[in-house]
Design a protein that fits this description.
It is a single chain. 35% of the residues lie in helices and 14% in strands. By secondary structure, the protein is an alpha+beta fold. It has a domain at 12-114: Orthogonal Bundle (Arc Repressor Mutant, subunit A). The protein has a two-stranded antiparallel ribbon with strand order 1-6. It has a two-stranded antiparallel sheet with strand order 2-3. Strand 4 and strand 5 form a beta hairpin. The chain is globular, with a radius of gyration of 23 Å. The two termini are 32 Å apart. Residues 1-11 have low confidence and may be disordered.
Length: 175
Amino acid sequence: MVRVAGAADAGGGAGSEAIERTLRVIGDRWSILIVRAGLRGIRRFDDFCEDLGIARPILTERLRRLVEHGVMTKVLYQEHPTRFEYRLTEAGVALSPVLVALVRWSEDHVPGAEPSVALVHSPCGTELEQAFWCRTCSTTFGPTAIRGVDRQVPDDTSPPSSEGPEDAPDGGNGH
């Protein structure tokens, strides 16, 4: 038996559970700004406070949650007194396209938002354009060419396959 991922969503449609899970981790103002600061190379608690203007108790809680969810890692950099750096993990760095999309969306759709920064490809200096790429067609395209399709997820209650080692041509003895 196979169940369709997302089918139980109450009208949420394809991907809504994934979006909800993601927003539980990074969906508040401070968490996404901490990730942005991390992408800019900020690692130390006091530097996050200064850069973001965030209250220390709020920063403490958000860093704890980002570490708990694997977005950042806490690394000891000084023993006496004990001090830590907060570094983005691979999962944290993978949020970079989300931040680029938020910047672009703000510039395009928030009244009065001025282009704040040009995002460029470091090696050549060309301004970035965000696009989607199909590995089958080897083409880029925009968001209107995308549709959500629920993935097939094996159901844990499926009976085991009837084909076991004893059904193998060699009788299951590897010869």
